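Hi R.,

Here's the input for the heme C complex you asked about:
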Amino acid sequence: MAKAKNRPIVEDNSGLTRRKFLVSAGALATGLAVTGGIAGCASTGGGGGNTSATASSGAAPLPWKYQKLDVELVRKRGYEGYYKFGCCYGAASALLTTLTETSGGSWGTIPQEMFAYGAGGAYSWGTLCGALNGSLAVINLASEKHADIGNELMGWYTEFPFPSEKHDSYCKIPKQMTTVSKSPLCHVSVSTWANKAGARINEEAKKERCAKLTGDTAAHVAEMLNMALEGKFAAAYAVPGEFDHCMKCHQGEKSQLDNQQGKMNCISCHDDHTKNK
Ligand code: HEC
Ligand code: HEC
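And here is the predicted structure with heme C in place:
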């Protein structure tokens, strides 16, 4: 391709469509960066990623105690909760309701409706998938390993073929088409699926897909928390080969350039300038 110098994406001769996509993707990336920034602040405090309640908050110190969760119950509740207040609420409430039952303590003190904000990638802005957003909040409350488990959840989500068939005995539309989004963004996740399925965003099939994705994501959190409880949690996500070389040069303090923030799959939005054309 032409020069990889200044803003090669915008000058990419593949045309306007791509340029338009990138402009909107930029807005999405900004939304995510804000979320990431908050998480980043929270984890810098303890060094080990653990946060403890400040004297002023009056809340019980983290992590809150939890007991083993019924993974399939969480999955079903996530699916059902989606139809109440959306994906973020669905995932958070599935976990919180189940945690309240098994573990009590502070778990029942959280007003679950607060997670309504996350629907559609935060008030339908298409940024961070709400099922991730709601799940990450609960992980942060539940485990001192929240940074590792949360990172694993994000990576897993980007490579998982949603939706699973594990809802098929009770859902409205079983055996749906699956797609791997390669992205934690609602916009990308939904559009990748809707394109392949030939579905409109506001039709029943898309809601079913997102309801199942909500349950699948919350269920995976339950699985990981169960493993962590037994001291058996191990991260499985590895940066896929298609962009791990990008990371080495562009991402992180020790990288050559250290000029971009984020762990999203670069080639969703950028061309690979290391491959000659
Ligand atoms: C061997 C190191 C290396 C690798 C690997 C690499 N890059 Fe780069 N990248 C560079 C350098 C050096 C520049 C040029 C910086 C400049 O001219 O300011 C650059 C420029 C860019 C730019 C334009 C930045 C600007 O300042 O306009 C983007 C976007 C980019 N790379 C993305 C990627 C992506 C995506 C990948 C992986 C698919 C990747 N890079 C892999 C070293 C690398
Ligand atoms: C969701 C889309 C998206 C993803 C994913 C993404 N980028 Fe970008 N990136 C952008 C946009 C939009 C810009 C700003 C474009 C511009 O400056 O013209 C940008 C800018 C950059 C720049 C230029 C920064 C500067 O200071 O000029 C670099 C370098 C870059 N990205 C590298 C990466 C790498 C490496 C990855 C993967 C780890 C990545 N990007 C993932 C959308 C994305």
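One thing worth noting: The CA atoms of residues 22 and 220 lie 31 Å apart.

Cheers,
M.
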